[in-house]
Design a protein that fits this description.
The complex is a heterodimer of chains A (310) and B (251). Chain A is 69% helix and 7% strand. Chain A has 310 residues and is mostly helical. The chains are: A mainly alpha (310), B alpha+beta (251). β5 of chain A pairs antiparallel with β5 of chain B.
């Protein structure tokens, strides 16, 4: 059964959409990741215009991150002050990112840009994850579980930055500049890639800001809910690219899939899961890179002048 | 007043009768004049049926029917990909003005056998060689060719030489297919009656494709009240995220 998507202006199989939402939701529940970096490429592979895929996925992430964020809030795992500082950066980044998408759309290069952003980020993240997970599988085999080590010199330059303030929940006294910068990067990524950005923010919070690990996930989810909500509104007003029907069907599949994924994930081996996820990420990256590099069978493409509005 | 009406009617009837004597006429209609695009829209099929009036004078041979169906006009930017440092990116582009978003030509036999190239060009029966006559001469460059090729691939442009079925000497029926991603707006079907390659009569009939129901509401809100649309999209997302986790905690 096909369903007509009013903003993407095409009809797609209903069960394919819910299935994609459910499948990616399952994986994200299992791995504890947002899933945007898998969902957006899948939508693009199914023929949804990349600009619509990105904006719609930002809308879906609001749904997939709000319940986790609330659960973390109840456990007092959110550093609200840090979250708000990250959010200031996130707002700036989201505004800039949506503007960049607008300009690139007008110039006809938005598809290329989104693909390049994905190839770059998925390539880097996938490779790092693969190295990390295989190393920890090896280490475990040799000398049992080892605690992750923190580089003690990495943050030395940060203590020299101005505008230092107290983050009581994280027991930190640091400048607001690094969290604003991290938030801004994540905001830009949310707007141009349709991702929550947890895969950048969580490592940055642990290794750069040195936040205690128990507040990292809650605080990043807190920021992601607000930033993706803002990105949804901005894309709606500026680009009219949020497809509410597509987003709702993805949410329906996604929230259910995530619940089951989280349950299954508890019984699986963490390192092997991460290695599998890394391979998945690299696979999507390779497919996107191939689409850019393989000589296309059709060199031409067309776009009605008043696309999305008449 | 009534006298005048009767007089006008009598005049009209006389005019129709004499015109019958002069030439054949074609009349046609569609099974539907309103097609609504709703949530389960996956394209539509329309049947066109018609008749050739006053065939008695031309007892010899069957007539030819060619129907062109044109959708709302659009200006389209066609882009060509170029290889830049190993990556295929959108390079040169050209803006093509005022072209029908949909154009189908259906006939009872190949148009090339029905009439000569000049008549075919004037009546816009062609898709390949001289499409739509909006392009003329050297304007029909690689961008215009690509436009027609892409449109044909999406079934927005098509020619079918067996789309019209003649029933006896005076009746005919045609099938036209509207794919799922057709543009909304007004469509015009021009029904041409030809005999021996000459146009004898033409009859126009129109139909509308409109987004309706939830689809229409969503689309219009997204366009005209985009801030409200964005806020609603966020609220729906919050509600479904929180709702699902509540349900699963109960279960």
């Amino acid at each position: 059964m096909n369903i007509y998507l009013p903003i993407a202006e095409q009809s797609l199989n209903l069960f394919l959409i819910i299935g994609m939402g459910g499948g990616v939701g399952f994986l994200s529940g299992m791995f504890g990741v947002g899933g945007g970096f898998l969902m957006t490429p899948l939508l693009i592979f199914s023929g949804i215009p990349p600009a619509v895929a990105v904006a719609t996925e930002a809308n879906q992430i609001v749904a997939s991150s709000v319940s986790g964020s609330l659960a973390q809030w109840r456990k007092n795992n959110v550093d609200v002050k840090m979250g708000l500082v990250l959010l200031v950066g996130g707002i700036l980044g989201a505004i800039a990112g949506v503007q960049i998408v607008s300009w690139l759309r007008a110039a006809g290069q938005v598809d290329l840009f989104i693909s390049l952003a994905y190839v770059g980020f998925l390539g880097i993240i996938g490779t790092l994850m693969l190295i990390e997970s295989t190393q920890s599988i090896w280490r475990k085999r040799r000398d049992g579980p080892a605690a992750p080590t923190r580089d003690s010199n990495a943050g030395a330059w940060m203590s020299r930055l101005p505008f230092r303030t107290q983050f009581a929940r994280s027991k930190l006294h640091i400048s607001v500049i690094p969290p604003i910068a991290i938030g801004a990067v994540v905001g830009v990524l949310a707007a141009i890639m349709g991702v929550g950005g947890g895969f950048i923010m969580v490592p940055a919070m642990i290794y750069l800001l040195r936040m205690p690990t128990n507040v990292v996930v809650g605080t990043s989810l807190f920021q992601i809910v607000f930033v993706t909500a803002l990105v949804t509104v901005l894309h709606s007003t500026q680009n009219q690219t949020v497809d509410a029907v597509l987003a709702f069907l993805l949410m329906a599949g996604g929230v259910v899939g995530a619940q089951f994924g989280a349950r299954v994930g508890q019984y699986l081996n963490g390192e092997q899961l991460r290695a599998f996820l890394a391979l998945l990420v690299l696979g999507v990256c390779a497919k996107m890179a191939a689409d850019l590099a393989i000589p296309p069978s059709e060199l031409f493409s067309m776009l009605p002048l008043q696309a999305g509005g008449h | 007043m009534r006298k005048l009406t009767a007089f006008v009617l009598a005049l009209l009837m006389l005019a129709m009768w004499t015109s019958h004597l002069r030439a054949e006429r074609v009349v046609a209609d569609l099974t539907s004049h309103h097609i609504s695009v709703e949530f389960d829209f996956s394209g539509a099929d329309l049947t066109l049926f018609g008749a050739v009036e006053d065939t008695a004078l031309h007892a010899a041979g069957k007539p030819d029917i060619v129907v062109t169906i044109a959708g709302p006009k659009d200006s389209v930017r066609v882009r060509m990909k170029e290889n830049f440092a190993g990556v295929w990116i959108n390079g040169a582009s050209k803006l093509l003005h005022n072209l029908p978003s949909y154009y189908h030509v259906i006939s009872n036999r190949p148009v090339s056998k029905i009439t000569d190239a000049e008549t075919s060009r004037l009546l816009r029966f062609g898709l390949d060689d001289v499409p739509l006559s909006e392009f003329s001469g050297d304007q029909f460059d690689e961008f215009a060719q690509a436009f027609v090729r892409l449109k044909k691939r999406r079934k927005h442009y098509a020619a079918s030489s067996d789309g019209i079925t003649l029933i006896g000497k005076s009746l005919f029926r045609g099938e036209l297919r509207l794919p799922a991603d057709v543009q909304t707006g007004e469509y015009v079907a021009k029904v041409h009656l030809l005999r021996d390659g000459k146009l004898l009569s033409q009859y126009d009939t129109r139909f509308q494709i409109k987004k309706e129901g939830v689809e229409s509401w969503i689309y219009n809100t997204a366009q005209d009240h985009s801030l409200l649309y964005g806020v609603l999209a966020v609220l729906v997302a919050l509600a479904s995220g929180l709702g699902a986790s509540y349900i699963f905690r109960q279960a």
